[in-house]
Write a structure and sequence with these properties.
alpha+beta; five-stranded mixed beta sheet; about 5% strand; metalloprotease; M56 family metallopeptidase; hydrolase; metal-binding
Length: about 300
């Protein structure tokens, strides 16, 4: 009972934290740290929510959550007889856990298939440019720039975007896309996108997904700033925004149309970064959430 109560409390804390987190603006000053914290909140929330139901469900075994699940799987007889509340909690917990796993796997498979199909299309219609090694060019009049993540990642840009941007702006956009590839932002987005499709009615989940999408764009902007002027990247974003840039295909990561003005303001008038002490405190909080959720699954209470 203690484990179930502790996990329920942790799940409630994660839900409240996610709700408050969606409106936070300090995240713009440290997008990478905020992304890590979002991931920790999401994982801890899922473990705590399903774990609370399962911990109550296996309580008759008196062995804790994980050992109780093993005992249930092995068909052992519980120390106390089953009753309806414990049986219902077990069924609900297993259903929720299975749903989360299935939704995540299904989303991953769907994205992998979309990327495979898109790579096949690019092999037929895209061309290489000797002045931009490693970049595939689409002969399309619309403005588009995106990357195809994965083991064989590719950066793609349209002829329309090349005409729209100056040389410095083009360098900035390509650096932004290379940042998405290098930091594997597709893996960051995958669980949030899967959860959004599983719970489309949840405002908190929708806002969390939008927040993470914006944060990875800001993180890519920060990495791109190492190789180009922030103002050039800002003007490139504005050009894409006013030209009606084409959205990235499903499963890909584009230059991003999310909150263009917020990103431009951040590039042109950067706010002071969070102090190292604050970042370490936030990372410690993220680690604490994960350790707490995992420990409550393992340690019998």
């Amino acid at each position: 009972m203690i484990t179930a109560a502790a996990l329920a409390l942790l799940a409630s804390a994660c839900a409240l934290g996610a709700w408050r987190f969606t409106s936070a603006r300090w995240t713009y000053r440290a997008p990478k740290t905020a992304i890590i914290l979002w991931q920790a909140v999401g994982v801890a929330w899922g473990l705590a929510t399903t774990g609370a139901m399962l911990a109550y469900g296996v309580e008759p075994y008196h062995q804790g959550l994980l050992h109780g699940l093993f005992a249930f799987a092995e068909g052992q007889t519980p120390a106390e007889p089953w009753d309806l509340p414990h049986a219902f909690a077990m069924a609900a917990g297993l259903t929720a856990l299975a749903a989360l796993v299935v939704v995540l796997i299904a989303a991953g498979v769907q994205v992998l298939r979309a990327r495979h199909r898109h790579r096949m299309v690019l092999a037929l219609i895209a061309r290489d440019d000797p002045f931009m090694p490693g970049v595939r060019v689409l002969d399309h009049p619309g403005a588009a720039a995106y990357c195809v993540p994965g083991l064989r990642s590719q950066v793609v840009i349209s002829a329309g975007a090349m005409e729209l941007l100056s040389e410095d702006e083009l360098t900035a956009v390509l650096a932004h896309e290379a940042a998405h590839v290098a930091e594997r932002h597709d893996l960051v987005l995958l669980p949030f996108g899967a959860l959004g499709r599983a719970l489309p009615w949840s405002k908190t989940v929708r806002e969390a997904q939008a927040q993470v999408e914006l944060l990875i764009e800001m993180a890519a902007d920060d990495r791109a700033r190492r190789y180009c002027s922030p103002r050039r990247l800002a003007t490139a974003l504005l050009r894409f925004g006013t030209a009606g840039a084409l959205p990235a295909p499903h499963g890909m990561l584009g230059v991003g149309a999310q909150s263009v003005m917020a990103r431009v303001d951040r590039l042109v008038k950067p706010a002071p970064e969070l102090s190292a002490r604050t970042r370490y405190a936030l990372l410690t909080l993220a680690a604490g959430l994960l350790v707490s959720a995992a420990a409550l699954w393992v340690i019998p209470l």
